[in-house]
Amino acid sequence: MGSEPFYDLNIEAQNLVENAFWNLGDVEFSVNDLIITSPQNFYIGERGNNVIDYEPSFWVGEMGLIYPSDYGYATSGGSTIDKNKCYELNFSSWESECYNNNYLDYGSNQWTITKIIYYEQPYIPDDVYVLSEGGTIINYYTMAPNISASPVLYPKHEALITGGDGTKNNPYTLGI
After folding, report:
1. pTM of the entire structure?
2. Which among 33, 69, 138, 173 could bridge 43 via Cys, Cβ 3.0 to 4.6 Å?
């Protein structure tokens, strides 16, 4: 991916993107198909060196996928539960205000970049976490159908916000 062009981006947009360091730390998947970890714990695991022996712990390139922690930290919370409480809750017990007020919730299943380690079972290759359309994090085999992918790009340091307010309905626009 590192040197391939972005066919859907115009030349100006391509010039705003730079290589990024993508952490590939695996996060433990627990029993009973419940993700019993919080956005805070995902963040720690994603940036760790907890990977299967032959897999890299990082990758450098221009494009990747969202981290589960990014999704978790994109909530604004609500009137009965604030965003800081959402950060601490396990995804399996997220309140509706945590995911209903999340600007990264697209209403469909989305791939993440974070792989799964199963400690209670033998190693299962190619399982990753998916942001579910129901607002939680679930596990999936990478060949599962009907899951969307939203690329994540890092803007160059000299990029400036030229418009928008960063909300779902009025996203930031960038320029140099």
Report:
1. 0.78
2. 69
